[in-house]
Each structure stands twice: as C-alpha cells, then as structure tokens.
Amino acid sequence: MREPFPEEALRAAAEIIDDVKARGLAAALEWSRRLDGVEPREVVVQPRGDPAADGSVVEAALEAARSLERVYARLRPADVVDYYEGVLRAVSWRPVERAALYVPARYISTLVMLAVPAKVAGVRDIYVVTPPRGVTPELLTVAERLGVRGVVSLGGPQGLAYAAFQIGVDMLAGPGGVYVQAAKYVLSRYVGIDGIEGPTELVVYAEGVEPRRAVAGALAQLEHGPASFALFLSRDRALVKEAGRIYAEERTSSMGSFEARAVSSLEEAARIIDEVAPEHLEVWGAPRLAQMVKNAGAISVDAPSPLLDYVAGISHVLPTGGSARWRGAVTPLTFMKPVGLAWLLGDTKLREYAVRLAEYEGFRRHADALR
Questions:
Q1: How far apart are alpha carbons 247 and 240 in whole angstroms?
Q2: Which of 138, 197, 279, 282 is catalytic?
Q3: CATH 2.30.30.30, applies to 201-325
C-alpha cells in the first residue's frame, strides 16, 4: 500500500485547519493569499449560467452527467421494512444534508463525477470547493445545471476547512493533491469523508492487441504526474517487451513510473491485480479476467481508462493505494447512511433473549429496562 501523503503535508494541513477553525474567514483568506496568490472577492459564488462559457465544453460535461445519472439512479437503495415477533423493523436510507465536493482547478469532469451521485442521493445542499482559478464560466454553468448551491473559491486545506467550519457541511468528498488529502484526513475528526485518495494508479492486462493501443491508457494515467504508477501484464512476452520500449520512447520527466511484467496465466494475473488493488484496471483481449478480479476501483474492457474517466457512466473518483480491497468508486451510497428503526407493536418473545444477553454481558440496567 502506498502512502497517500507525507507527514510534512499532514503537519501543514493541520496548521491551516486549526487556524481557520479558530479565526474563520480571515484565516482562510490569508492562507489563500499566501498559497494561491489570490484573495477572492467573493468567497461563496452563486452558480449561474455564464454566456462566456464554452458551449461545447458545457455540452460535453452535461452529456457525461446524463450518462452517469442513468447508472447511478438505479443504485439509490430502497428502504427495507420487516415484521417479526411483534416488532416492526426498518432500515431507511437517508442522505447527508450538506456535502462539499473538492474539484481541482479546471477539472470540470470531477464536478460531474461528484455532483451527480450527491444529487441522486438527495443531498439537500451541495457545495463545490475549488481554487480561485477553478471558478470558470464553464464550472459555474455546469454547477447550476447540476443543482449546486454554492462554489467556495478557496483551494486546498483552507477551502475544505472553510466548508467544514463556516458552512457546516456534514461531509467532504473528492480527489486532489497531497495537501487536500491530508486535510481530509485531519478534518475526518469533524465531518465525514469519502476516503483518502493518493496518486493515480493503473494495471493493464493485454493480449492479442496492437501494442500502442494497449499502452495508450497507461500513458494517459501517468500524465497525472511523477507519483502516478502503471503496471503492464501479459502472457505475451513480446508484447511485454514492446510495452516497455514504447514507455521508454514516450516518457517525459513529468510522467509517473511504469513496469512491464510477463505472467504465465490469467490466474497469476488476477492474483497480482488483487494484491495491487489498483484504482484503474484495463483488460484487453481477455474479458474473462475482468470477472476473475476482486479488487479494482473500476475496470475498462477493450477500452482505455480515460473513457471511464469522462463519459462511461461510472465516477472517476476511485479508491487508490490498495484501498480498492474494501471500498469502491463514489456513488450515491457515499452520501447516504442507513438509519435503523424498531417499533414495538406488542409483547414479544424476543424480549427474553435480549434480557439473557444483557445479563451475560453484565448490563443490569439494560435487563431491567427490557423487563
């Protein structure tokens, strides 16, 4: 498992958060001036259609939103109601009331990938937190169409702290750099978070496909920076060798690391992938492998992962650093919580079993209340 942020980032984020918690807006503006070189005149901007927005970008973002909503509308869980031995029981799924979505500057696709599941979940007040340079005509226009209540024009820990303490959100969600993720970790003492997202990672398995097509998705994900990582697997040793050659040919100083490895079977590939538990998995020419793998944030079959990043209908806010072993992509469930209810409609034989358990555990007053 890779560390999502260094200790230095954690200390810096904690300092900023403590300051904003103590001094409020004045501290948030001061940190914005120091770190981003900008003190926004309007901290919470009302989303609005802006005639200066690039219409083609807005259209693409809204089509991505429609694609995502078609899938996620079916994921909203139904309440469960059951009657047993005099007790009416229910589990009711209820959304958080306020959520803040962190959108890195100009990542309008990330706005879609977070706002749509929050909207489908039924979150009442959706806020976007983005650096001042991220408050573009396109973002404001799309945010309005997606039902966002306000755009906080503060980046990094100061923006998230402002949302947590000044707006009073219940939850923070979204990707971002090491300081954003460190801030989410610190703020998880006060509000909910979707998870801690580290550097981008990808595993590619390929066979029977043209080498440059097989490697293109890896090169795309490595575009996210030097900390990103891609692992290329294949039973075809010639393809493994060619993949390594293409990476060496295309590599730039700003790209992440790449490893190409031969495997003897699909079973071995599945075992390696499950151990890595990657954010993205691309499978080329072996669709059965997609069913064999248990641990991956999202799987693209015979398609490059950027298709999923933008329009395939699954959120690109995915687990990293091996956390795909226990969680998945952001969905409406990310913004919802199950609330249990029990209604006693008459005497029940269940009471006696409860008394026995309470007495065994040493809770005398629990047993008295049940009697």
A1: 11
A2: 279
A3: no
207 is catalytic: no
The overall pTM is greater than 0.90:
yes
Where in the sequence of the chain do the CATH 3.40.50.1980 domains occur? 7-194, 201-325
The tokens describing 125, both together, are 């007040």
Q: Tell me the two tokens of residue 176.
A: 């971002």
Which position among 69, 201, 280, 282 bears the catalytic label? Answer: 280
Provide the H-helix boundaries in 24-154. 25-36, 55-72, 108-121, 137-145
Known catalytic residue at 280: yes
Within 13 Å and on the Cβ side, how many CA atoms surround 81?
3
Q: What is the pLDDT of residues 290-305, one digit of tens each?
A: 999 999 999 999 999 9
Q: Find how far residue 305's CA is from the centre of its chain.
A: 16
pLDDT digits (tens, 9 = 90+) for 42-85: 999 999 999 999 999 999 999 999 999 999 999 999 999 999 99
Q: Compute CA distances 117 → 33, 101, 114, 153, 276, whole Å.
A: 32, 11, 6, 22, 27
